[in-house]
Structures are given as C-alpha cells and as structure tokens.
Amino acid sequence: MYAKSLIVMLLIALPAAVPVAADPPDESSLKQRYDAFVKSLDHRRLAEDYPGAVRNLNSPDPKMQTVGIKTLAATDEVKAIPWIVPFLDSEDQHVRIHAGLSLNAVVATHQLKRRDQIQPEKVVILPPGPGDIDLRPLSWVILKMLRLPDDGNTHAYAANMIGYLGLKEYEAELRVLLESKHPAVARAAGNALEMLGCEKPDAFVAQRSTQRFEEVVQRLVQAINAQDHAAIRQDFNEAMLDDLTSEESKQFFSRLANQFGKIEKLDVPRLMAPNRAVVAAHCSGRNLDITVALDEHDKIAGLTFLPSTPPIPVPDRLSTSFRLPFDGQWLVFWGGESKELNHHYDSVNQRFAFDFLVVDESGRTHQGKGTENKDYFAFGQPVLAPADGVVTDVITGVRDNTPGYMNPTFAGGNAVILMHCENEVSVLAHFQQGSIRVKCGDNVKRGQVLGLCGNSGNSSEPHVHFHVQNTPITQDATGLRCVFEEITVTRDAKSESRMNYSPVKGDIVRQK
User: Fold this and answer.
1) Cα(182)–Cα(274) distance, rounded to whole angstroms?
2) Does the pLDDT of residue 202 top 80, yes or no?
3) Which CATH architecture has domain 27-200?
4) Considering the domain 329-511, what is its CATH architecture?
5) In 3D, which of 347, 435, 365 has the Cα closest to residue 404?
6) Other CB atoms closer than 10 Å to residue 436's CB: what's the count?
C-alpha cells in the first residue's frame, strides 16, 4: 500500500535557468499562517496512534523514514502533514520525493471530499464550509517544494496541490512549469491551470509526453543505420555506458543491422510508464519493437530490441461478471480513475486496481497499537474468487510483513492469478503466508475461498489487492476497468444498491 501527492511555487530561489516570476508571495506571512495552522491540529496525537510509524521517522535509515512517511500518509489524516513536511529538507532524494508524494495525497484526499458533483466531467473543488479544515495555509509548504530541484516529481506534486487548493496567485508559476523537461511536471501544471479556470495549451502538454522519446529514438536509429557506433552511445547514461562496453556495443548493433536490415520508419511511441515507451520500427527485413527507458535527464537507462509481435487485445468491455473478492463490509482505500484516487493509476497493468481494507465505525483499521498483523481487522479474512476461472499462476512462500514495513522485492507477495476467459484475467495479491488453497491448473468457482488476507509483499498493513488485466503475463499486461455487478455502497453514512459499479476511494462496499 502506498501513499499520495502535493503543490505550489516561488521562483526567486530556483536555479538560474528557470525564469523568475514577478511579485512572489510574501514568505514570512505564509510561514506565520502555516505555523498557526499546525498549532490548531494537535498533530502529536498521531504518535500515540501510530508509534511504529513515528519510530521509523526517527530512524537514521532513509528507507525506514520512507516507510514511516507512507504509513502516516495512508491514514489520510490532516494531522499527518506536520510530521511529513520536515522530510522535504532531507538530503536523500528518495525521501524528499516520497514526502512530496505523501503530502499531495493527503491534500488530494481531503479536497476531493468537496468535489462538485454537479460537474462530474471536470474536477471542481468547492470552497471550505463550516467545520471543514482550510488547507490553504499549506501555500508555504508548496513554496518549499518549488525551491527544490526539478526532479520530475516534486514540482508535479506542487502543481497538483495548487490546483486542489485553488491558489490562483500561482498561475504564472504554473505556466513556467509547462516548460519543464519532465512530462509529468508539464502535465500536472496543465491540469492545475484547468482546475483554476485558466487557459492551458493542451496540445503542447500532450505532445511533451512522447516528444522526449521520439527525439532520443530518432537520433539512435540514425546512428544505427549509419553504423556510427560513437553516435549510438551518445545518449546512453553512465550506467549504460558502464554495462555495455564500446566493443560489445559495436558487435551487438552490427548483428542487429545484419538481422533486421535498415530501419525505415518509426511509429509514434507508446507510453508504458512515465519513463518507458515502446516504438515500433519498420525495417527492410523483420520489424522491431524498440523499448527505451529514459532517466530524469532524458538519457537512455534501458534499451531492448525484440521482433515485433501483435499487440495483446484490450477488450473495450468485459464479458465476465465479477463479485467482490470477499464477504462483509470493506473500505476502498485505493480505487478510481485518477492518480489522486488511485496510486496504481500510472502503472499500465494496474491502472484500475483496488486496495481493500476493513475498518471499524471510527475508521480505524486495527485494534490496539497495530504493531502486529493480528491486530488488523482484515488479517485472516477469506479472499474469494471474483468469478469462475482457471488458476494460471500461484505465488507462495512470501513472509507477512511487520505492519509499517514493506517488501518491494516481492511486490505482489503471495498471489493468485485467474484466467476467466481470453484476455480477461484477475490478480489477487498480498495473501497470508501459507494460506493459499489452490494450485496452478485448478478450476475455481465464483465465491470459492482462494486463501486468507495477509500482509505480504509491497504492503504496509493487511489488505486485499485486486485488479483485472488482459494477460496472465503481468509485465506485458494492460489493466482493464472492472465493475462489480451488484453491491451495496455506503458513503457519507448513506447506503445504496449499485449495479455494474466500479468503486472509488472512500467507498465502503459489501457484496449483496
């Protein structure tokens, strides 16, 4: 389970290459507003509720600090903000990025509760009402974020927050961010301008997503066709240059040219992730699929050449009828069709994934201190087959994590993959170690117990991960939008029956 995202901008302290906005906000007054905001929160109570997370924050190990940040952000509580903000000053870039991501997520979750339902086609946040917490004092935090180097992440979180908080005074700064070399930053700035009701150059923002790949691949292909081996390596990053010597590079690209011939035409890049794309190359011999990964400086960090294969079909509409993968009442912690609602959204194969938790009437996911898996209401609950199918893959033997810690090496943990019909496959992850009751090749029936909910893999507390994709081969898969045919949905203390519904973050769902 992961955490979330953030926003804003003072350009006086940015590197000299970035234009400086006129009349920047008064930092001193913004800091005073933020300090008053923090005093009003009684945020130190979180140390009593989440002692493990606070211990991780106080650890000298950046990895443990990151886990603590994610855990507090996952609470969705505004009180988590003052605990996370100091880590924007961390010397560790990974920690800084996760601090910004988590702040952005808390802000997005809080603000989206006031989304205008009368205008569902766009994101419009209504002003704070009586009893609502006003998060606009976070403007000072956003200034801190915009002073950090443009790493392709933090400025995007800042732009997001500007939009969610309705900070129109930052329009000029957002227009500067449109020029970022990082597509994620440019997209976030464009989206924020739209939320503020400002005009944005849509074509420019969309173009930036693929343009960086087009430019690099075109230079690479020109060098390959000319067999200019020095030019082939000019866009490699340091790691690539170290891993592939000049002689190895020469031998590889010579064989490539002999086997596939001259590359005559390139298709538009297909984005597989923010920093990875596939480009179809039409050759005089056999055609190629070129997969290229770019680092933050648009240098080649990874490169593969494979014979072209027909794309795996992506159904427009699923023929399988799905039930929820559990009985009882569960909270949708992540789910929806935006990054703010669903942290899986940028992952091609998990774009429409769900994470489900069990909560009590007060919204807590555990009893006691929550330091052991058995404290969590979800732990040990039966996980059910969402539809009839055949088991294609089973992963077992992964230990359950101690709450607050994660195992990204085995991200899915103990997992089951079911093929329901051609190009409709479901993935259920994070089972309790030793609890899975099925094996590869088994035919399972809708509602059959597959195993028990656990906390294995990239998971900070017990929960059920579920998503649908178009192939059992996860690395080649495209995520598919899934609806559940008949469920009860509770939101804001109101329950209603929903047919063919895809839940979103904050829904409480139960199978009818």
Assistant:
1) 9
2) no
3) Alpha Horseshoe (1.25)
4) Distorted Sandwich (2.70)
5) 365
6) 23
